[in-house]
Structure formats: C-alpha cells, structure tokens
Write a structure and sequence with these properties.
Layout: E1 6-10, H1 21-28, E2 34-38, E3 41-45, E4 51-55, E5 64-69, E6 76-82, H2 88-101, H3 121-126, E7 131-132, E8 140-144, E9 150-155, H4 161-165, E10 173-178, E11 183-189, H5 195-206, E12 210-213, E13 226-229
Antiparallel strand pairs: 1-12, 1-13, 2-3, 3-4, 4-5, 5-6, 6-11, 7-8, 8-9, 9-10, 10-11
Length: 300
C-alpha cells in the first residue's frame, strides 16, 4: 500500500461521488450568487434569480438539481438532475460554464459567440471511442464507453416538454454509469438544456480523471480502474477547484453587457452592490453532503 493515500483514478464515472466542495466552490465564489441553507436543503440562486442549483441531503451524496426559469419563479425552461453517486467533477463541469454563460443568456457559447465550440456531446464522445450499441432499448440511442461501463443515452421521438419537465417521461439525454438496468449513478437532462453545458459534462465523463483517497474508491470498481499515485503537494487540491474568475469591469467608454432582444430575459449580471461572492470560498463549516462518506449520432 502506497504511503500516499490520494490517487488519480480513471475512468471518472467509476469513482465515488467525491468532495461536494468541488461543486459548491464555483458557486460560493461566483459574483452575485446567493446561498441559503437549511438542514433539508442547500440552494444557490443566480444574480438574476432565473437559475437555481439545489441539493437535498436526504437524496444522497452527489445529488444536485439545476434549473433555469424564464423569470424568477416563472416558467421552468429546463432541468438537469444529477442523481446520488454522480462524481462531483461531472456536476461541476456542468455548473461552472453555466455561471459564465448566464451573463450573456448563453449567447457567448452558441454559434457565433466568442466561446462557441463546435461538436455535439454525442460527436465529442464518439471521437473518444464511445460508439452506438446495438442493444439500445426501443426508443433510445445509446453510446457505450470503451470499457462498456458507462452510457450516453438520447431519447428518440417527441414528448411534450411539460411532461418531461414534470418527470412523467424519460429525459431527453442521460449519462449512466454501470448497467442501464442497475445504474451506479445516473444524470438526466431535459429538452432545452444548452448544449455547451451538456458537452462540458460529457467531456468530464469521458476524459477527466478524479482525485480520491484510496479508501473512497468503491471496492467493486477497483479492478476496472487505473490509478496513479499523487504527490504530497496534491493534498492541497482536496480543498476544491481553482476559483471561477470574476468578470472584469468594463473599461471607460466600453459597451456594457449586451442588451436583451425583445422578449428575451435580460442577461444575468450581478446587480450593483452584489458583486461579492456568495461566500469567501473557504470550505463551509457544514457540508451539504450526508455524513456517509450504425454511426455515432452527431445531432442532439
């Protein structure tokens, strides 16, 4: 047994949920985001009030729900639900670009925007060896990981958006670790989720390693994972990812935030006097987690 208990492990989808601070740190340090916490619920709200990130401890470690609305408390546009057991790095890969994307109503990340990157989640995964499986259930298109232990699922056919948002029908896209019949964890994304967020989560799913204590690695998964010993300096990384940089102020004479088109919600910027992060970014005294530690489809 190595003297260094912290190791890098691959694939990420077989790792444990990890440290919830990986998810909360970008939110705690994002300008204008507010944090409210009770024994039953941890909630972050965007500066404009149109997006929320919530965790219910009773739902299990690794569970988070992200929602965006037309207006604060208005009609739900889309939802992303990360079920119990989801590695924190995947959730953080979804939330971190959301924080920035809301500032332009996602336009900076759409085609023609300065942060746009071509490629759908399916095509990005296909480039990394995730290929369609002939065993997809009727009504679904599954891409399977090279080791056969994770899936990216796209629901085929049309379903009413309201029924999907209410959970009455399966989500449009899912990430599943383990067997689809007995998933280790599952994350679901409804119609309307901006594709750049889904692509970011998909890249984390397929590429990113995880930093874990050896004791955190699920015993049943150890035979299917590769590990690399971390150096002592890596212990500092247990405190979470680097902070999300705050938006730089506009220089004198420069244009302000892009105005919303008619009928479009205004960009989600902090209001005057709310530019401070939700917290100092240090590890919270109370953790939100429970105490128990054919061809690839390049369209949607």
């Amino acid at each position: 047994m190595s003297a260094f208990p912290l190791v890098y492990v691959r694939p990420l989808y077989l790792a444990s949920p990890g440290d919830p601070f990986t998810v909360t740190f970008p939110l705690d340090t994002a300008p204008g985001w507010s944090r409210t916490e009770t024994p039953d619920l941890l909630r972050y709200t965007s500066p404009c009030g149109r997006a929320t990130v919530t965790h219910e401890p009773a739902a299990g470690q690794g569970s988070w729900t992200v929602r965006e609305y037309t207006t604060p408390g208005g009609e739900l546009l889309w939802a992303a639900r990360f079920g119990p057991g989801t590695p924190a790095e995947i959730t953080a890969a979804f939330i971190t670009p959301l924080i920035d994307g809301l500032r332009s109503n996602h336009r900076d990340y759409l085609e023609g925007g300065p942060r746009y990157r071509p490629g759908s989640p399916a095509s990005l995964l296909a480039e990394r060896g995730w290929w369609p499986t002939p065993n997809s259930p009727t009504g679904f298109h599954d891409q399977i990981a090279p080791d056969g232990r994770a899936y990216y699922r796209h629901r085929l056919g049309h379903q009413p958006a309201e029924a999907e948002l209410d959970g009455q029908v399966p989500a449009s896209w899912s990430m599943i670790a383990g067997s689809p019949h007995r998933p280790v964890w599952q994350a679901d994304f409804t119609i309307g989720v901006p594709f750049y967020l889904l692509s970011s989560a998909a890249m984390a799913l397929a590429v990113h390693p995880a930093k874990r204590l050896r004791t955190e690695i699920p015993p049943a998964n150890r035979a299917h994972m590769s590990t690399a010993r971390a150096t002592p300096v890596d212990f500092s990384l247990l405190s979470g990812p680097p902070p999300v940089p705050a938006a730089a102020p506009n220089p004198p004479g420069a244009a302000g935030p892009r105005a919303a088109d008619e009928g479009e919600p205004p960009p989600c910027w902090p209001t005057p006097g709310s530019n401070a992060p939700a917290s100092t970014g240090s590890r919270p005294a109370t953790s939100p987690a429970p105490p128990t530690p054919a061809t690839p489809d390049s369209s949607r």
